[in-house]
Design the sequence.
């Protein structure tokens, strides 16, 4: 974790953690993609920008989804992506703040897919 810092959640992030943490994430075709393991907020505004998803599978893999593309459908958290596209995104570490280059890579992935 050299060069990265732990983040202490502010009140808005804490509310988002309560709202999203542990929820299953589904694709639009109803398949389970994983479970929300964390949220990442903008350092300046405190607004939650990313959901960190533990991708379903044998070994833990963490990827992000922009919170603004997630919707609730009949109580389910749905994102417009496939498992393949989610796994194609850059990996992230739990509990570690994103650096500017990290966020640029995430944004590039989600704007091209």
Sequence:
């Amino acid at each position: 974790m050299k060069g990265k810092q732990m983040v202490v959640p502010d009140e808005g992030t804490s509310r988002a953690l309560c709202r999203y943490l542990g929820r299953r994430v589904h694709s639009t075709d109803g398949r389970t993609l994983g479970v929300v393991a964390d949220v990442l907020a903008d350092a300046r505004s405190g607004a939650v920008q990313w959901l960190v998803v533990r991708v379903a599978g044998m070994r833990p893999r963490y990827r992000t989804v922009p919170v603004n593309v997630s919707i609730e459908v009949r109580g389910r958290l749905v994102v417009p992506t496939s498992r393949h596209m989610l796994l194609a995104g850059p990996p992230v570490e739990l509990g570690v703040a994103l650096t500017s280059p990290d966020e640029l890579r995430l944004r590039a992935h989600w704007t091209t897919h």
